Amino acid sequence: ALRAVGGYRADLIAGEEPEMCLRLRRKGWKIWRIDAEMTLHDAQMTRFGQWWKRSRRAGYAFAQGAALHGASPERHWVTETRRALLWGGVLPLALLLGTVAISPWVLVVAGLYPLQLLRLSPRMGLRTAWFSLLGKFAECTGVAEYYRDRVRGKNRKILEYK
User: Fold this and answer.
1) Whether residues 56 and 8 fall in one domain
2) Contact assessment for residue 98 and residue 106, using Cβ atoms and an 8 Å cutoff
């Protein structure tokens, strides 16, 4: 199966397994998931900065995956890229512009963040929902870095967070 799809892509900084699984499914393979914990991944993150870098790397990987396979029927990581851009870029920019323009819409936009926390908290818990929302700012930075690198014709090496 690995040979049939050329193995993992060496040019991805993260998300190699989901991307390879997409290519496997396209070749007719089936991906099975068992209902049991198979491994425990200890990211060994003890500082906020490590978590932020890891979230940035995720944003970069989302954008890279969407650029590779986003136009396909699978829409690989398009939704994740859009979420990062919306919550971490578009809405903060709208808040900033609304504040400068002294628009009442700034209150509506500002209220979206607490509403999102209320929406996510029952499912995730408040702490996890908070970090999920906060992570969108780091992810948006990663998305922007991917497109900057793409315009420059560069491919980023892995972004270490430890």
Assistant:
1) no
2) yes
